[in-house]
Hints:
By secondary structure, the chain is mainly α. The chain has one domain (2-257). Helix content is 75%, strand content 0%. The protein is built from ten helices and no strands. Helix 2 (18-45) crosses helix 5, helix 3 runs antiparallel to helix 9 and helix 6 (137-162) packs parallel to helix 10 (221-252). Mean pLDDT is 89; it is low at 259-264.
Amino acid sequence: MRTFAIVLRQYYLIRGSLSRVIPLFAWVVIDVVLWGFLTRYLNAISASPIDFVRVLLGAALLWDFFTRVMQGVTMAFFEDVWSRNFLNMFASPITLREYVSGLVLSSIMTSLIGLVMMLVVAGVVFGLSLASYGAVIALFLLVLFVFGIAMGIVGSAIVLRLGPAAEWFVWPIPAVVSPFAGVFYPVSTLPVWMQYVSRLLPPSYVFDGLRAIATGRPWSAMSLLWGGGLAVVDLLLACWVFGAVYRYAVRTGLIARYSAESVT
């Protein structure tokens, strides 16, 4: 299938380049180690019964997973942009659906590598196991995965519409979303207007549930179901946006004038 040709291309790119292999491991290890020692320190100086390793390190691990999923899509797309291969790609018989599916499969490949590395480091060094949260952790990861794919497709659409220089609008997306998602604190601590925004973001329901489990409180299955529904809607909207931007780029000739500068 042509979809797997996209994945195979990413595999050969990663396999043949140390500069592409190292980021799959380095940043996730740094994040886990940083948050791991911070949470150990908080446990040591705090009289609170809360286990900060489970609450904060677990949240950091899940947010890193979302970030890797999103960047797995955008990086696969950027490889075609940076190599000036995007126009060649669509001169072939590949369809838009097959291309986007290939980006998603590439993201699965790279994000799973990062997830495994995070689990190994968190478990061996800090004694944190995702199994300690119960089977529901798989649903948390699934919601974050779907939302990460959606954000990756939207980020790719931004670059497709505005040109390669617009990639700098894409890298900060996780940082911009995280305050609204309540990754490390309850959404109730936010100003009211931010709470309205957070309720539209699937990760806010994931991290509410994670904190509830980590602190021994009941979590809401209906709340998580709502978050999962929002993630699916976001994914469908993202695919529609990418398709609309692609058709516009073809119709106006932007796709043929792709360069290192922004196009308008």
